[in-house]
Write a structure and sequence with these properties.
With 326 residues, the chain is an all-alpha fold. It has 17 helices and 2 strands. The protein has one domain: Farnesyl Diphosphate Synthase, CATH 1.10.600.10. Strands 1-2 form a two-stranded antiparallel ribbon. A hairpin with a 2-residue loop joins strand 1 and strand 2. It catalyses: 5 isopentenyl diphosphate + (2E,6E)-farnesyl diphosphate = all-trans-octaprenyl diphosphate + 5 diphosphate.
Length: 326
Protein backbone atom coordinates (compact mmCIF):
# COMPACT_ATOMS: atom_id res chain seq x y z
CA UNK A 1 0.00 0.00 0.00
CA UNK A 2 2.99 2.31 0.56
CA UNK A 3 3.36 2.69 -3.20
CA UNK A 4 -0.21 3.90 -3.66
CA UNK A 5 -1.36 7.49 -3.58
CA UNK A 6 -3.37 8.65 -0.53
CA UNK A 7 -6.57 8.67 -2.58
CA UNK A 8 -5.96 5.02 -3.57
CA UNK A 9 -5.46 4.10 0.09
CA UNK A 10 -8.67 5.91 1.06
CA UNK A 11 -10.72 4.29 -1.71
CA UNK A 12 -9.33 0.85 -0.84
CA UNK A 13 -11.21 0.94 2.49
CA UNK A 14 -14.55 0.85 0.64
CA UNK A 15 -13.43 -0.55 -2.73
CA UNK A 16 -16.23 -3.15 -3.01
CA UNK A 17 -18.87 -0.55 -2.18
CA UNK A 18 -17.28 1.85 -4.66
CA UNK A 19 -17.60 -0.71 -7.46
CA UNK A 20 -21.26 -1.31 -6.52
CA UNK A 21 -21.96 2.45 -6.59
CA UNK A 22 -20.39 2.67 -10.06
CA UNK A 23 -22.68 -0.08 -11.34
CA UNK A 24 -25.70 1.61 -9.75
CA UNK A 25 -24.78 4.94 -11.37
CA UNK A 26 -24.56 3.31 -14.81
CA UNK A 27 -27.98 1.65 -14.33
CA UNK A 28 -29.57 4.93 -13.28
CA UNK A 29 -28.15 6.76 -16.32
CA UNK A 30 -30.31 4.67 -18.64
CA UNK A 31 -32.75 6.69 -20.73
CA UNK A 32 -35.01 6.13 -23.73
CA UNK A 33 -33.45 9.29 -25.23
CA UNK A 34 -29.96 8.33 -26.47
CA UNK A 35 -28.42 11.82 -26.09
CA UNK A 36 -29.38 11.92 -22.40
CA UNK A 37 -27.47 8.69 -21.78
CA UNK A 38 -24.53 9.74 -23.98
CA UNK A 39 -23.95 13.08 -22.23
CA UNK A 40 -24.70 11.61 -18.80
CA UNK A 41 -22.16 8.84 -19.24
CA UNK A 42 -19.60 11.23 -20.73
CA UNK A 43 -19.59 13.52 -17.72
CA UNK A 44 -20.07 10.87 -15.02
CA UNK A 45 -17.18 8.84 -16.47
CA UNK A 46 -14.90 11.87 -16.83
CA UNK A 47 -12.38 10.45 -14.37
CA UNK A 48 -12.95 12.61 -11.30
CA UNK A 49 -11.99 11.44 -7.82
CA UNK A 50 -15.64 10.75 -6.86
CA UNK A 51 -14.94 12.34 -3.49
CA UNK A 52 -18.56 12.96 -2.55
CA UNK A 53 -19.84 9.39 -2.97
CA UNK A 54 -16.61 8.27 -1.29
CA UNK A 55 -17.55 10.45 1.70
CA UNK A 56 -20.98 8.79 1.86
CA UNK A 57 -19.43 5.31 1.91
CA UNK A 58 -16.75 6.18 4.46
CA UNK A 59 -19.24 7.94 6.74
CA UNK A 60 -21.64 5.00 6.63
CA UNK A 61 -18.80 2.59 7.39
CA UNK A 62 -17.53 4.78 10.23
CA UNK A 63 -21.06 4.60 11.69
CA UNK A 64 -21.17 0.82 11.31
CA UNK A 65 -23.95 0.94 8.69
CA UNK A 66 -24.02 -1.53 5.81
CA UNK A 67 -27.58 -1.21 4.49
CA UNK A 68 -28.20 -1.00 0.74
CA UNK A 69 -29.47 2.58 1.02
CA UNK A 70 -25.87 3.79 1.39
CA UNK A 71 -25.22 2.75 -2.24
CA UNK A 72 -28.28 4.65 -3.47
CA UNK A 73 -27.30 7.70 -1.39
CA UNK A 74 -23.78 7.72 -2.85
CA UNK A 75 -25.26 7.61 -6.38
CA UNK A 76 -27.70 10.42 -5.55
CA UNK A 77 -24.83 12.61 -4.34
CA UNK A 78 -22.81 11.92 -7.50
CA UNK A 79 -25.80 12.77 -9.71
CA UNK A 80 -26.38 16.05 -7.87
CA UNK A 81 -22.70 16.92 -8.20
CA UNK A 82 -22.61 16.01 -11.90
CA UNK A 83 -25.71 18.11 -12.59
CA UNK A 84 -24.04 21.14 -10.99
CA UNK A 85 -20.92 20.56 -13.14
CA UNK A 86 -22.97 20.52 -16.33
CA UNK A 87 -24.72 23.75 -15.35
CA UNK A 88 -21.50 25.38 -14.06
CA UNK A 89 -19.69 24.81 -17.32
CA UNK A 90 -22.48 26.46 -19.27
CA UNK A 91 -22.59 29.45 -16.89
CA UNK A 92 -18.78 29.80 -16.96
CA UNK A 93 -18.59 29.10 -20.72
CA UNK A 94 -15.87 26.55 -19.92
CA UNK A 95 -14.36 24.42 -22.66
CA UNK A 96 -12.18 22.15 -20.54
CA UNK A 97 -12.82 20.06 -17.43
CA UNK A 98 -10.54 17.34 -16.04
CA UNK A 99 -8.35 17.63 -19.10
CA UNK A 100 -11.00 17.06 -21.74
CA UNK A 101 -13.77 18.90 -23.56
CA UNK A 102 -16.77 19.91 -21.48
CA UNK A 103 -20.18 18.58 -22.48
CA UNK A 104 -21.24 22.06 -23.62
CA UNK A 105 -18.11 22.30 -25.82
CA UNK A 106 -19.03 18.97 -27.46
CA UNK A 107 -22.84 19.12 -27.66
CA UNK A 108 -23.77 22.75 -26.96
CA UNK A 109 -25.33 24.62 -24.06
CA UNK A 110 -28.96 23.54 -24.46
CA UNK A 111 -28.37 19.74 -24.26
CA UNK A 112 -25.96 20.26 -21.33
CA UNK A 113 -28.50 22.22 -19.30
CA UNK A 114 -31.29 19.77 -20.07
CA UNK A 115 -29.21 16.69 -19.21
CA UNK A 116 -28.22 18.46 -15.98
CA UNK A 117 -31.95 18.81 -15.27
CA UNK A 118 -32.41 15.09 -16.01
CA UNK A 119 -29.67 14.19 -13.52
CA UNK A 120 -31.26 16.36 -10.83
CA UNK A 121 -34.64 14.75 -11.46
CA UNK A 122 -33.21 11.22 -11.45
CA UNK A 123 -31.38 12.03 -8.19
CA UNK A 124 -34.69 13.00 -6.58
CA UNK A 125 -36.32 9.81 -7.86
CA UNK A 126 -33.58 7.79 -6.17
CA UNK A 127 -33.95 9.94 -3.06
CA UNK A 128 -37.67 9.09 -2.85
CA UNK A 129 -36.79 5.38 -3.11
CA UNK A 130 -34.47 5.71 -0.11
CA UNK A 131 -37.65 6.75 1.75
CA UNK A 132 -36.02 8.67 4.60
CA UNK A 133 -37.62 12.07 5.12
CA UNK A 134 -34.68 13.52 7.08
CA UNK A 135 -32.21 12.48 4.34
CA UNK A 136 -34.49 14.08 1.77
CA UNK A 137 -34.64 17.27 3.86
CA UNK A 138 -30.82 17.44 4.04
CA UNK A 139 -30.36 16.87 0.31
CA UNK A 140 -33.16 19.17 -0.87
CA UNK A 141 -31.82 21.93 1.42
CA UNK A 142 -28.33 21.34 0.01
CA UNK A 143 -29.51 21.77 -3.59
CA UNK A 144 -31.21 25.05 -2.63
CA UNK A 145 -28.09 26.38 -0.91
CA UNK A 146 -25.86 25.33 -3.84
CA UNK A 147 -28.13 27.10 -6.36
CA UNK A 148 -28.06 30.26 -4.22
CA UNK A 149 -24.27 30.00 -4.00
CA UNK A 150 -24.04 29.80 -7.79
CA UNK A 151 -26.11 32.96 -8.15
CA UNK A 152 -24.09 34.78 -5.49
CA UNK A 153 -20.85 33.85 -7.27
CA UNK A 154 -22.30 35.04 -10.57
CA UNK A 155 -23.20 38.38 -8.96
CA UNK A 156 -19.60 38.77 -7.76
CA UNK A 157 -17.89 38.05 -11.09
CA UNK A 158 -15.73 41.08 -11.98
CA UNK A 159 -16.54 42.66 -8.60
CA UNK A 160 -13.17 43.69 -7.13
CA UNK A 161 -14.89 44.81 -3.91
CA UNK A 162 -15.76 41.23 -2.94
CA UNK A 163 -14.75 40.66 0.70
CA UNK A 164 -13.23 37.56 2.26
CA UNK A 165 -16.52 37.04 4.15
CA UNK A 166 -18.52 36.98 0.88
CA UNK A 167 -15.95 34.66 -0.71
CA UNK A 168 -16.30 32.26 2.25
CA UNK A 169 -20.09 32.40 1.89
CA UNK A 170 -19.76 31.45 -1.79
CA UNK A 171 -17.44 28.48 -1.24
CA UNK A 172 -19.43 27.22 1.75
CA UNK A 173 -22.55 27.17 -0.44
CA UNK A 174 -21.02 26.04 -3.74
CA UNK A 175 -18.55 23.41 -2.56
CA UNK A 176 -18.76 22.64 1.15
CA UNK A 177 -22.54 22.19 1.18
CA UNK A 178 -22.49 18.99 -0.88
CA UNK A 179 -19.56 17.60 1.14
CA UNK A 180 -21.58 18.32 4.28
CA UNK A 181 -24.75 16.79 2.84
CA UNK A 182 -22.78 13.63 1.92
CA UNK A 183 -21.47 13.02 5.43
CA UNK A 184 -24.55 14.29 7.29
CA UNK A 185 -27.08 12.29 5.24
CA UNK A 186 -24.96 9.12 5.62
CA UNK A 187 -24.92 9.62 9.40
CA UNK A 188 -28.70 10.10 9.51
CA UNK A 189 -29.21 7.01 7.34
CA UNK A 190 -26.97 5.07 9.71
CA UNK A 191 -29.15 5.94 12.70
CA UNK A 192 -26.31 7.14 14.95
CA UNK A 193 -26.89 9.53 17.85
CA UNK A 194 -27.03 13.32 17.53
CA UNK A 195 -23.39 14.02 18.57
CA UNK A 196 -22.11 11.67 15.86
CA UNK A 197 -24.45 13.14 13.25
CA UNK A 198 -23.26 16.63 14.14
CA UNK A 199 -19.61 15.48 14.09
CA UNK A 200 -19.99 14.12 10.56
CA UNK A 201 -21.90 17.20 9.40
CA UNK A 202 -19.10 19.42 10.73
CA UNK A 203 -16.43 17.20 9.16
CA UNK A 204 -18.04 17.52 5.71
CA UNK A 205 -18.40 21.29 6.02
CA UNK A 206 -14.80 21.86 7.16
CA UNK A 207 -13.37 19.42 4.61
CA UNK A 208 -15.30 21.07 1.77
CA UNK A 209 -14.01 24.53 2.70
CA UNK A 210 -10.41 23.26 2.96
CA UNK A 211 -10.77 21.53 -0.40
CA UNK A 212 -12.01 24.66 -2.19
CA UNK A 213 -9.37 26.88 -0.59
CA UNK A 214 -6.69 24.56 -1.96
CA UNK A 215 -8.39 24.53 -5.38
CA UNK A 216 -8.15 28.32 -5.45
CA UNK A 217 -4.55 28.17 -4.25
CA UNK A 218 -3.65 25.71 -7.03
CA UNK A 219 -4.91 28.21 -9.59
CA UNK A 220 -1.56 29.96 -9.02
CA UNK A 221 0.81 27.08 -8.28
CA UNK A 222 -0.86 23.87 -9.45
CA UNK A 223 0.06 21.41 -12.17
CA UNK A 224 -2.28 22.39 -15.01
CA UNK A 225 -1.97 18.99 -16.69
CA UNK A 226 -2.73 17.05 -13.50
CA UNK A 227 -5.58 19.40 -12.59
CA UNK A 228 -7.14 19.18 -16.05
CA UNK A 229 -7.65 22.91 -16.25
CA UNK A 230 -5.58 25.96 -17.07
CA UNK A 231 -3.78 27.78 -14.30
CA UNK A 232 -5.42 31.20 -13.99
CA UNK A 233 -8.86 30.04 -15.17
CA UNK A 234 -10.71 31.77 -12.34
CA UNK A 235 -8.89 35.03 -12.97
CA UNK A 236 -9.72 34.81 -16.69
CA UNK A 237 -13.41 34.61 -15.72
CA UNK A 238 -13.06 37.58 -13.35
CA UNK A 239 -13.76 35.50 -10.22
CA UNK A 240 -12.36 37.13 -7.06
CA UNK A 241 -10.88 34.17 -5.17
CA UNK A 242 -9.12 34.42 -1.79
CA UNK A 243 -5.53 34.78 -3.12
CA UNK A 244 -6.71 37.79 -5.17
CA UNK A 245 -8.81 39.27 -2.36
CA UNK A 246 -5.86 38.98 0.04
CA UNK A 247 -3.46 40.58 -2.48
CA UNK A 248 -5.79 43.55 -2.91
CA UNK A 249 -6.14 43.89 0.86
CA UNK A 250 -2.58 43.28 2.03
CA UNK A 251 -0.36 43.86 -1.02
CA UNK A 252 1.23 47.11 -2.14
CA UNK A 253 -0.91 49.77 -3.78
CA UNK A 254 0.50 48.81 -7.19
CA UNK A 255 -0.24 45.10 -6.59
CA UNK A 256 -3.76 45.86 -5.41
CA UNK A 257 -4.45 48.04 -8.45
CA UNK A 258 -3.08 45.41 -10.83
CA UNK A 259 -5.35 42.70 -9.38
CA UNK A 260 -8.36 45.00 -9.17
CA UNK A 261 -8.11 45.89 -12.85
CA UNK A 262 -7.65 42.24 -13.84
CA UNK A 263 -10.78 41.16 -11.95
CA UNK A 264 -12.83 43.99 -13.42
CA UNK A 265 -11.62 43.28 -16.94
CA UNK A 266 -11.25 39.48 -16.91
CA UNK A 267 -8.78 37.74 -19.20
CA UNK A 268 -5.15 36.75 -18.73
CA UNK A 269 -3.19 39.64 -20.26
CA UNK A 270 -1.29 40.28 -16.99
CA UNK A 271 -1.23 36.71 -15.66
CA UNK A 272 2.53 36.61 -14.99
CA UNK A 273 2.57 39.96 -13.15
CA UNK A 274 -0.52 39.00 -11.16
CA UNK A 275 0.89 35.59 -10.24
CA UNK A 276 4.04 37.35 -9.01
CA UNK A 277 1.95 39.86 -7.02
CA UNK A 278 -0.09 37.05 -5.44
CA UNK A 279 3.08 35.16 -4.49
CA UNK A 280 5.00 38.14 -3.10
CA UNK A 281 2.04 39.49 -1.10
CA UNK A 282 1.87 36.34 1.06
CA UNK A 283 -1.57 35.45 -0.31
CA UNK A 284 -0.66 31.83 -1.04
CA UNK A 285 0.70 31.25 2.46
CA UNK A 286 -2.40 32.87 3.96
CA UNK A 287 -4.76 30.73 1.86
CA UNK A 288 -2.78 27.55 2.62
CA UNK A 289 -2.74 28.21 6.38
CA UNK A 290 -6.51 28.81 6.37
CA UNK A 291 -7.05 25.55 4.47
CA UNK A 292 -4.87 23.71 7.00
CA UNK A 293 -6.91 25.17 9.86
CA UNK A 294 -10.15 23.88 8.35
CA UNK A 295 -8.58 20.47 7.69
CA UNK A 296 -7.51 20.28 11.36
CA UNK A 297 -11.03 21.20 12.46
CA UNK A 298 -12.43 18.47 10.20
CA UNK A 299 -10.15 15.90 11.84
CA UNK A 300 -11.04 17.16 15.33
CA UNK A 301 -14.74 16.69 14.55
CA UNK A 302 -14.16 12.99 13.82
CA UNK A 303 -12.83 12.20 17.29
CA UNK A 304 -16.42 11.68 18.54
CA UNK A 305 -16.62 8.57 16.32
CA UNK A 306 -15.25 5.19 17.40
CA UNK A 307 -11.82 4.26 16.02
CA UNK A 308 -12.06 2.42 12.68
CA UNK A 309 -10.35 2.05 9.31
CA UNK A 310 -13.02 4.37 7.87
CA UNK A 311 -12.30 7.10 10.42
CA UNK A 312 -8.57 6.75 9.69
CA UNK A 313 -9.30 7.08 5.96
CA UNK A 314 -11.37 10.23 6.60
CA UNK A 315 -8.49 11.74 8.56
CA UNK A 316 -6.14 10.86 5.70
CA UNK A 317 -8.57 12.49 3.26
CA UNK A 318 -8.53 15.73 5.27
CA UNK A 319 -4.72 15.74 5.21
CA UNK A 320 -4.68 14.89 1.50
CA UNK A 321 -7.08 17.75 0.74
CA UNK A 322 -4.44 20.28 1.80
CA UNK A 323 -1.27 18.50 0.61
CA UNK A 324 -2.42 17.71 -2.95
CA UNK A 325 -1.04 19.39 -6.07
CA UNK A 326 -4.08 18.72 -8.31
Amino acid sequence: MANHSPIDQIQAVVSDDFATVDRHIQQQLSSDVPLVQTIGQYIVNAGGKRLRPLLVLLSARACGYSGDARIALAAVIEFLHTATLLHDDVVDMSNLRRGRDTANAKWGNAPSVLVGDFLYSRAFEMMVNIADLEVMRILSNATTVIAQGEVLQLMKVRDANTTEAIYMEVIRAKTAMLFEASTHAAAVLSGVDTPQREALRRYGDKLGIAFQLVDDLLDYQGDAEAMGKNVGDDLAEGKPTLPLIYTMREGTEAQAQLVRQAIQKGGLEQIEAITEAVRSSGALEYTASLAQRYAREAIEALQVLPASDARDAMELLANFSVSRTF
